[in-house]
Amino acid sequence: MTFHPPPFTVQVGRHCERINHNEIKYFGIPCQVVSEALASQIKRWSSAAGCTTGGQRCLYKLQSATVHFIAAKHTTHFERKVDDINFRLASSHFFTSCHVSAMSVSESWYAIKDHGTNYCNLYNLMEGSGLTEARGYKEVTSDFQCTQRSSADCTVY
Fold first, then answer.
1. Is the CATH number 2.60.40.1120 carried by domain 20-133?
2. What confidence tens digit (pLDDT) does each residue in 57-67 have?
3. pLDDT in tens, 88-100
4. Which helix (H) or strand (E) holds 143?
5. Where are the domains of the chain?
6. Its domain of life (predicted)?
7. Is the pTM higher than 0.85?
8. What does the DSSP 8-state code read for residue 98?
9. Sheet of strand 20-27, all strands in order from the earlier edge strand to the far edge
């Protein structure tokens, strides 16, 4: 019997006082590859250069990165709001697959409706790094789990 890693899955927590977005992802590739791809993408989007195209694929700042944990910040281009981003990576299936718990939280206590910005923070990094094309990638979520996810326009936010 051939082992197939579990699909990429997203499970999202609800917000209380401020917008946050939590995800659980599964990849059929090693955590080292996932970690390097995410850290490299955060570094590529650290300047304001990506803001000129009208989106938010810019102003990311890598705080720390290991094979097990990545911490970053994202500053929104227009409003200059800061979001905290964390990725926790755990190897599974003899280091051939990676379980990733990701979270993006607005530092602003008053950020209730963010147009899906925190969802887009995580999705844009995944998509920009090419991880949305990785083996086993699949996203499962809903507006109940992730406020404004279905209306989020990640080319803008």
1. no
2. 999 999 999 99
3. 999 887 778 888 8
4. none
5. 20-133
6. Eukaryota
7. no
8. E
9. 20-27, 97-106, 82-92, 69-75, 60-65
